[in-house]
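ugh ok fine here u go
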Amino acid sequence: MLTFAWAVLAGFALGTPAIPFGLSISLTPPVALLAVLLGAAGCLLSAVFAVEQIRTRWLARRSKRRPVTPGPPPGKRGNRLAGPTGRRARRVVNRYGVIGFGIIGPALFGTWGSAMLGTALGLPRWRLIGWLMAGVTLWCTVMLLASEALIDAFGLR
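structure:
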């Protein structure tokens, strides 16, 4: 029971890369997958709701402080997501939509990163959570199969 809790905690902190950890603490593959998915679900929910609260307060505060202008003020960067990670996330969202971001995001940005970026980009909350969970499930299953293949190939069990 304690090993299951450790695997859930690792899934919360690490996301998909916690699968080998779950296997290394002697959990069976389906139990390790379940534990990591539970932890990743907690990660996604907490990240999406926290960033959404921060984003809502920031937008409300920003609208009170300065009137809406058609463009960014002179000498200021217009978009805070204009860095390389933000541009890559925006490109994925523009090309593939929420579904593509949810499936590809955990592989490109990690569980925490994709949840926070998706929320910061203004994607619909429940669609984002659902598709990110689908993506995390896909990548956790891929990681589980790869880990099991390596364990069998090297004869570690």
